[in-house]
Amino acid sequence: MPQTAPSTVIDQCVVALTWVLKDTLGEELDVLDEPVEFLVGGDDLLARIDQALQGRSVGETLQLHLEPEDAFGDYNGQLIFLEQRALFPAELEEGMTFDGYALPQGCNPEAPQELLYTVSEIYPEHVVLDGNHPLAGIALRLELKIEAIRQATEEEVGRGSAGTGFFRIQPITPGSQTLH
Questions:
Q1: Which domains does the chain have, with CATH numbers?
Q2: N or C: which end of the chain has fewer CB within 10 A?
């Protein structure tokens, strides 16, 4: 017997959201015009967003203010690493990202492997890698709208994601500004 869709947001359901993400100065950082699905109670959304969605219905709009500790944490200067330029490919560009597990041989062994590193600066002899999330240290304003709610599949619950994972930043190609 098929399960009916929940009428309000609960843990282990999937919500389709649209949103506008801004910094506290009002500059747009990300816009979702088309609904994107996220697993509530999984790994897709920040805990503060999960909490705010609980009990809400389709069509509701929420306005959230997220301090860094509720979003991507404070900026940590100890996650900046200066590496030899020669270790990296010739086509290296600022904004490129490297998975910490796949950093070139010879990089600082103190660099935590579980992080994603962004090339923030390139010098003739050195490369600056930043292990901070791109939005670390920034208070955010998020206006979101619940477009749809459905029951999560067993597979989605098992992996903790509806497959989107906006808040788990993926490696990006040079020039891309997409955060999700």
A1: 13-72+138-159 (3.10.50.40), 77-130 (2.40.10)
A2: N
